[in-house]
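Problem statement: downstream parser choked on a complex file, so we are re-checking the raw output for the threonylcarbamoyladenylate run. The parser issue turned out to be on our end (a line-ending mismatch), but while we're here, posting the original submission so the record is complete.
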Amino acid sequence: MRTQLTTSPRTAAERLLQNDVVAFPTETVYGLGANAFSGEAVKRIFRAKGRPADNPLIVHVAETDRLPSVVRSVPKYAERLIEAFMPGPLTVVLPKQRRISALATAGLDTVGVRIPDHAVARRFLAECGVPVAAPSANLSGKPSPTTWQAVKRDLNGRIPMILKGNPSRIGVESTVVDCTGAAPVILRAGGLTLEELRSVVPSARLMKPNSAGRVKSPGMKYRHYSPLAYVFLVSGPSETVPMKSAAYIGLHGVGVRPFGMKKVCRSVTEYARSLYRFFRECDDRGIETVYCETVSEDGLGLALMDRIRKASLQ
Ligand code: TXA
Ligand code: MG
């Protein structure tokens, strides 16, 4: 299969409506989309990514008025979150409509839904007219792609089309919030912060690890976001062993230390935006060890620390 590149949201949508999979840009990471109403189309996502079938997908729509085609009911507090943060890096988990493919939700009675805050993505979704199930457009286990080149690197020859866009502005995935209970619970930290959620619904909280008997967000149990290199968390450059086969990413300068690659970010926002791309560049250059500087776990730091911690578990 040849992978075609396009900049036309309409061309990409036409392809998707033929029950094919299409990669598309969003402000968080690139997604790999398929018609969420079609089990046959959704199956192709799992096949292209090598993704385990028990990990549900997020369903994307262009506008809030499309939400009723995906979810059955919306509690009051979730309405307030939708009003405040959609479009944006927020995924809400709600009771699913029957028409959404059971394959997309891994058989769950709930579905995660999101509206990307990205002009090309929304034009594409509007042209599709159907809800679009889409995980991140990486091979399972690799860091999520934040550029179309990274999508091509992973999925060239495995998918028919990539809708090209700019590098993702946020660089980490959306915040997944369970809205099926009495108050919102963050299942996966992401681009929308806990503080922002609480400014609208003060009772919002983080899921306590292992507090529930069952896995609420099945995707969280898989190894994720990892480069081939070993990832170590450090509080600064002084805790590292600098050498050509090692890399450093963080907020503080590393001076003349001889790292093979380094990235000093001006802010946590830039750090989050750069992380996955940095991991991929490290892999391309055969880096064996990546040192990630830890940051405080507030704001976007919560999602960033989650990702670097997961990358270090291998
Ligand atoms: O930013 C994002 O969220 C990107 C872009 C493409 O939208 N998508 C993304 O999808 O990161 P994916 O499949 O890589 O991650 C989806 C996460 C997984 O952790 C999955 O378990 C969780 O959302 N999830 C999806 N549906 C769920 C549901 N019904 N209940 C609980 N968790 C769910
Ligand atoms: Mg993913």
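For whoever reads this later: The first helix runs from residue 9 to 16.
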